[in-house]
Design brief:
By secondary structure, this protein is mainly beta. It has one domain: Beta-galactosidase, Chain A, domain 5 (Distorted Sandwich), CATH 2.70.98. It has a seven-stranded antiparallel beta sheet, covered by helices on one side.
Length: about 325
């Protein structure tokens, strides 16, 4: 049996299993509450959950179902989808079909636990195709932060290229400016040089690597994905931001893991009015020389606050990276 045929069969089994575990039309409210929870801070209200449907949120998307800034009331993420959504696992043999393999983290069973009034955890047992076990802990921290700690343990020793890629997507809800912004290579927080990044089309020059990223993945095949389409641009500091209405969303990553940014101008589908497309603001963690049974982690912060200029963005980045906000 070829690897692709195996993945096809495993994907069909996976999707059928998820449909049985999490039916589209779930029953009572208490059953649904076992799959997501709402958290309130001075700066926003957010709902975090697993791959279950929660009207209007569709089944097959996890992470932050909604993020409603105080005084705004409009979800910064497309209500059907989510933000910080654990989207793909991949190796050097990208699989784009069937969807249940390409989107394995979205389709495999996932368990939501509300730890306390500020914290939720998503646990996913070993997935059937890529063989990854993971825990994602979200902590809502006043006044306007969501801190995410992700840990995973790969269990397969035959990943193509010996690497594991992990991809998160945020489906943005009709920002007038689809761009993300980051500091270009050779610059710093003290001497910034800003790059505005808005890709021309989906899967074209989509991924931005760090200036220190020396990992060259020899992807097999010719079909493009967001994570195989590498931009010539490089970033200097592990953060990016985007603006949506009066808010700014800042994605900040603690140094350590190999992080890549990604962008799509249309990855979140058509706007509600149908007159434009919604962008996706994404990121990846690359684990070269992946060892089965070893735990790998990522720590990041999502800031959602009113836009106060680039100096304020840089100050938020400094605080998180230095730990002075603890």
């Amino acid at each position: 049996m070829t690897l692709r045929l195996y993945m096809l069969l495993a994907g069909l089994i996976l999707w059928g299993t998820l449909a049985a575990v999490h039916p589209v039309n779930a029953g009572a409210d208490d059953e649904m509450e076992a799959h997501y929870g709402t958290f309130t801070l001075p700066g926003f209200q957010c709902t975090i959950g697993d791959n279950t449907a929660a009207d209007p949120h569709m089944r097959g998307y996890n992470g932050i179902f909604s993020l409603l800034p105080s005084g705004d009331g409009q979800n910064v993420f497309v209500p059907l989808f989510s933000g910080l959504n654990l989207e793909h696992y991949f190796d050097a043999l990208p699989v784009t079909e069937p969807g249940s393999v390409f989107f394995e983290p979205r389709r495999a069973a996932m368990q939501f636990t509300r730890i306390d009034e500020h914290t939720a955890e998503l646990y996913q047992p070993v997935t059937p195709v890529f063989g990854v076990e993971s825990r994602t802990r979200f902590t809502a921290t006043a006044p306007h932060y969501i801190d995410m700690h992700f840990s995973c343990t790969p269990h397969r020793s035959d990943l193509a290229g010996g690497l594991l890629g992990i991809f998160w997507a945020s489906y943005m809800n009709a920002p007038e400016d689809k761009s993300i912004y980051f500091l270009g290579d050779g610059s710093s927080l003290e001497s910034p040089r800003w790059i505005q990044f808005c890709t021309q089309e989906h899967n074209r020059d989509s991924t931005v690597c760090s200036e220190n990223d020396r990992v060259n993945i020899a992807f097999q095949g010719t079909e493009k994905t967001l994570f195989t389409a590498i931009s010539p641009l490089r970033y200097a500091v592990p953060f990016f931001y985007g603006r949506i209405r009066e808010q700014v969303l800042i994605y900040i990553f603690q140094p350590g893991p190999l992080i890549r940014f990604a962008h799509s101008p249309s990855g979140a589908g058509a706007t509600e009015k149908g007159d434009d497309t919604n962008p996706a603001w994404d990121f990846q963690m690359i684990i070269p020389d992946c060892e089965p049974g070893t735990s790998y982690t990522l720590d990041m912060r999502l800031v959602c606050k009113k836009w106060q200029g680039r100096d304020d963005v840089l100050e938020e980045v400094r605080r998180f990276l230095s730990g002075t906000d603890k």
